[in-house]
From TrEMBL:
Stated name of the protein: Branched-chain amino acid transport system permease protein
Record keywords: Cell membrane, Membrane, Transmembrane, Transmembrane helix
Regions that span the bilayer: 12-31, 38-59, 65-85, 92-110, 155-176, 208-228, 234-255, 262-284, 296-315
Superkingdom of source: Bacteria
Membrane topology note: Multi-pass membrane protein
Annotated coiled-coil segments of the chain: none
Location (main, coarse): membrane
InterPro entries reported for this sequence: ABC_transp_permease, LivM-like
Compartmental location: Cell membrane
Length: 325
């Protein structure tokens, strides 16, 4: 067994664009669920509209990269409005069903041949990062050491993603310390009590859905910057990975989603490298293909254990978790 490659491939996920993108999307999900109490199972759709909005703006309309990103964020806000108007008055369980169905509808729309001119259907989109890479402040060369060795474009993707993540975390921190954030937490605890004080609960929920949706769309943009937009990336497994990350780090916390993303992807990558090698070496009675699927089973088991034994997550406070009351 090659433990050097196992630990090297695992360590690479500490600063992976995938880890950063999931941390951003989980931060948006924290606004939805952790602070507003909205049981949203459709965050994959927000990531998809953000990534596709950016890519289509650049490829189909020839817009500059920064304007494409703004359009991607606007798509996230617009999708939140379209999703929220008919669903935010639903109970939590019905809201979960509606949002996961909406996410599948969005994914299938990007797959359909009707919009192939803009989405390229199942083939996805690529070749939209030229403008973004043209503003790369790092000269050509190799940076870092060991498993954290990057060329100038890889480093720029990571630095830009970390800057966006820092801005998103700061925004959530500032909002939740404001009067708006305190009202949002009150709605999470008892929306009838907040409504009796004259607050428009629906408007606050909608605002939270939009804010979290924009952050989720930003995560979708960071997710596709290094390579391509592929509709297969936005399956339901993405949503459940985000929920595992959120619950692992702490749903009602500012830094919990970031910590959860790092822990999740490091462990996920470790198992993805370790289990197939154990199977190949004869220590596990399974094929390499079967070994690859075992880690998905383990993710499901971990999610159940988190909900049962530590629903508040690593950084969370159990008193703030509405679903354990």
């Amino acid at each position: 067994m090659d433990f050097g490659s196992i630990f090297g491939n695992t360590a690479a996920y500490l600063f992976s664009p995938v880890t950063i993108a999931y941390a951003l999307a989980a931060t948006g999900l924290a606004v939805h669920f952790g602070y507003a109490g909205l049981l949203n199972f459709g965050m994959a759709a927000f990531m998809a509209v953000g990534g596709y909005g950016y890519a289509i703006s650049v490829l189909s309309f020839g817009l500059p990269w920064w304007l494409g990103m703004l359009i991607g964020l606007a798509c996230g806000a617009l999708f939140a409005l379209v999703l929220g108007i008919p669903t935010l008055r639903l109970r939590a369980d019905y809201l979960a069903i509606a949002t996961i169905a909406a996410a599948e509808i969005v994914r299938l729309l990007f797959l359909t041949e009707v919009f192939k001119k803009w989405t390229n259907s199942a083939g996805g989109l690529s070749g939209y990062s030229t403008g973004f890479r043209d503003i790369n402040p790092f000269p050509p060369g190799t940076y870092g050491f060991g498993p954290w060795t990057y060329n100038e474009n890889d480093l720029w993707n990571r630095v830009f993603g970390l800057i966006m993540l820092a801005l998103a975390v700061f925004l959530v921190w500032a909002l939740m310390r404001s009067p708006w954030g305190r009202v949002l937490k009150g709605i999470r605890e008892d929306e009838d009590a907040v409504r009796s004080l004259g607050k428009n609960v629906f408007a606050y929920k909608m605002q939270a859905l939009v804010v979290g949706g924009i952050i989720g769309a930003l995560g979708g943009i960071v997710f596709v910057l290094p390579s391509a937009v592929v509709p297969g990336s936005y399956s339901t497994s993405l949503t459940f990975f985000l929920w595992t990350i959120l619950l692992l780090g702490g749903a009602a916390t500012v830094f919990g989603p970031t910590l959860g993303a790092v822990v999740f992807w490091v462990v996920f990558a470790f198992l993805g490298n370790l289990i197939p090698q154990l199977a190949a070496a004869g220590f596990l009675p399974m094929t390499n293909v079967q070994a690859e699927t075992v880690r998905f089973v383990l993710v499901g088991v971990v999610l159940m254990l988190i909900v049962i034994f530590r629903p508040q997550g690593i950084l969370g406070d159990k008193r703030e978790m509405t679903f354990v009351k």
